[in-house]
Amino acid sequence: MATPPQSNQRLDWLPSSALASLPTVSSSNYRGGLRHFAIGVTLVSTCHNGVRAGLTATAVCSVTAEPPRLVVFVNKNVAACDLIFQSGALCINVLAAEQEELAKAFASMIPDVQGEARFNYGTWDKAVTGVPVLHNALANFDCRVVKVFEESTHQAFVCEVLATRERSDGDALIYLNGAFRSLPQ
Q1: For labelling alongside 17, which of 28, 42, 167, 171 has CA 20 to 30 A away?
Q2: Which domains does the chain possess?
């Protein structure tokens, strides 16, 4: 019988009772503020039983360097979320400025490009985990999932990095104020 994973949530901490009754901002105010938060654009790719899936993601963050860990937040309603959960593996592909079309394809911004058809954009290979890895991305982080947290509409996948690859040239693709933009080196 498998041992259930241990939670690392601090159970000795409680939210401030003085702040608990205060209302949160509206979703539109929150989104409005986030429009000014410049963030790098990634493609998160995965594969399970030969079925590939991926999505454009900006909710990716470094967690620790030792061990090398990243966290990516994925909406529970996208196909890739279930495949990541099943496979336990994903690749975070950091996009270069010239890869905006890829970002659009994986963000459902190109009509009739869904599912496997998204992988017709770009050149793909594999690394350690066997999930799709985008050739010529600024950086690739091939990862195994080590923890999953439910957070409202999303799953937070905490991943350990098993392999990396990077380019030494290229401008970064970022998302700011509702548009893709490039950030020169």
Answers
A1: 28
A2: 40-178 (2.30.110.10)
